[in-house]
Design brief:
The chain is an all-alpha fold. It has one domain (about 5-310). The protein is built from 13 helices and two strands; from the N terminus they run αααααααβαααβααα. A two-stranded parallel sheet has the order 1-2. α2 packs across α4 (about 80-90) and α3 (about 60-75) packs across α6.
């Protein structure tokens, strides 16, 4: 292990795979409790994919590549897709002239709940079409080999389970896999809709509840993750308090994701009006800018995200 905190991520994956195996092999475990647990841990599996593709869990490169394949089975998509789609495109927003394949603007229903429901249907095809274009470029042979290996593990193992017991595998393996894969796409909408990606500190929404971030491996602290992509996930909470909180519009720091989802997508019909979130950044820069930690230029931060993906 590179960091002692990584045992939490390995534990999450062990629980998730254990839930899938239990439901597939033990009829008594095919119940709503195990199924809902598997769906939730499937989403956490994609959170681990995100962290692992920024900084590998293990010191050994071989172990990291094998772990990618295990995670790919859990999500039913190749984990390495995160490198071009997330690390190299999403982290840039559109400031390099290329559109974010999973930008909130891809959906525009008046009924905001439909935006949340439909978003994976747009962002998913956009993302995998972009990954295919990126992988086809010269110099990507190693990526293509790893990508195919992960596809073979994910779809090969899932296909074998379907052949052995189709309906059990469909309901108690494939549905949880798909739930996590679609939920992680929705996170792009949840964390960036209504934000201002042209700003340095108000481009992302954060969910700062302590219990939430313990199980989510600090993925609620999204602003600091964008700005310090090379920072280990276990250090994001302290960095958020130190660097982000003084500069961010208070509406972009949410205590609870559940409360935010209910308020934004269930209790209100329309998409919330955009706020001038950049004003908080301007105020902080004038009042205490010199006392706050400086932020490297975006070019440096992009290079950091790319280096972590090597």
């Amino acid at each position: 292990m590179k960091h002692p905190a990584e045992w939490r991520q390995v534990g999450i994956i062990a629980v998730y795979l254990g839930l899938l195996a239990s439901m597939y092999l033990v009829p008594w475990c095919r119940n709503p409790l195990f199924f809902c647990g598997a769906c939730y841990f499937s989403f956490l599996n994609t959170v681990v994919i995100h962290n692992h593709l920024h900084q590998g869990v293990f010191k050994s490169r071989t172990l990291n590549m094998v772990f990618r394949a295990v995670l790919s089975f859990g999500a039913l998509y190749p984990a390495s897709a995160n490198i071009p789609s997330h690390n190299l495109v999403h982290h840039h927003f559109d400031d390099d002239g290329q559109p974010d394949w999973a930008a909130p603007e891809h959906v525009s229903f008046r009924w905001n709940l439909l935006n949340l429901i439909h978003f994976p249907n747009v962002a998913g095809p956009n993302t995998f079409a972009g990954v295919q274009r990126w992988a086809a470029l010269a110099g990507r042979a190693e990526f293509r080999r790893q990508y195919m290996f992960e596809n073979a593990v994910a779809f090969g193992l899932t296909g074998a389970l379907l052949l052995l017991d189709f309906w059990t595998a469909l309901f108690f393996v494939v549905l949880p896999q798909l739930y996590g894969a679609r939920c992680i796409l929705r996170i792009n909408l949840i964390q960036h809709d209504g934000c201002d990606v042209s700003t340095e500190w108000n481009h992302s929404r954060n969910f700062v509840g302590r219990a939430f971030n313990w199980i989510m491996c600090n993925n609620g602290y999204h602003t600091i993750h964008h700005n310090r992509a090379g920072l280990h996930w276990s250090a994001l909470d302290a960095a958020h308090d130190r660097e982000v909180a003084p500069r961010i519009d208070r509406s972009l720091d949410e205590r609870s994701m559940i409360a935010y989802l209910l308020r934004t997508y269930v209790l209100h019909f329309f998409r919330p009006a955009r706020r001038n979130v950049a004003a908080a950044e301007a105020r902080a820069g004038g009042a205490q800018g010199s006392a706050l930690p400086a932020l490297p230029p975006r070019e440096v931060r992009r290079a950091e995200a790319e280096a972590a993906s090597a």
